């Protein structure tokens, strides 16, 4: 499915999350969404955040993105504190959030328009390479409404990768897709990660998905959101979501989650 991936992100970055807590002032008082989160993520690592609903996965992703600020603690990317959103971190959501008035190529080029020093030719070449990377080179001039849900997420991925972010943040990007489309995307994202080696933080409810994709699975427990356990997954890539090894590990993590929240 994937072809021609010579253009890849720089990959080598390091994310340090130290003593991060987040307290929201909700309508019914204060909500401690995260407490004392410490995580070091090495350059090129694929880390999946899992846990029960409300354990703070999205809050943590938003803090890394610079969309939310921690109540205490710091997030550093390659030693630089994260103080707001930046082109070095791209977020991909469950909904593709594509611009319907632009075609596929226009969407992928959108972020590149904001990168200084690129000619139109540079931007076109980079967009084409990334569309090829996600297997959609032939659809460059399709309208967004002509695409399936899986194709839209591929375009969103090409757009996210086009600006060569140092870190890719993914919040349940495949949750709204049917099982067959998801399985194909699991293969594709593993292949893209193997080729490009970018750092990825990926939020999911789906344990199988987490152990299929992640080098490490971080289990959070809720109220307050804390790191409960970390699992280093050393099965070689590409992994098959239906393999019995993955089933056994995902069952173990699910058991641990149930035990921790019982
Ligand atoms: N803006 C906000 N104001 C008040 N409380 C919030 C806000 N955002 C999140 N919360 C609370 O913080 C906690 C963590 O929410 P968060 O969305 O990060 O969890 P999650 O693990 O991503 O949940 P889910 O898996 O259901 O998406 C929840 O109790 C939530 O209600």
From TrEMBL:
- State the SUPFAM superfamilies in the record: P-loop containing nucleoside triphosphate hydrolases (SSF52540)
On whether Transport is a keyword of this UniProt record, the answer is: yes
Keyword list (alphabetical) reads: ATP-binding, Nucleotide-binding, Transport
**PROSITE patterns for the chain:** ABC_TRANSPORTER_1 (PS00211), ABC_TRANSPORTER_2 (PS50893)
Gene Ontology molecular function: ATP binding; ATP hydrolysis activity
Q: Which InterPro entries match?
A: AAA+_ATPase (IPR003593), ABC_transporter-like_ATP-bd (IPR003439), ABC_transporter-like_CS (IPR017871), ABC_transporter_ATP-bind (IPR050166), P-loop_NTPase (IPR027417)
Name of the protein described by the UniProt record: ABC transporter ATP-binding protein
From the broadest rank down, the organism's phylogenetic lineage runs:
Bacteria, Pseudomonadati, Verrucomicrobiota, Verrucomicrobiia, Verrucomicrobiales
Specify the ABC transporter domain's residue ranges: 15-247
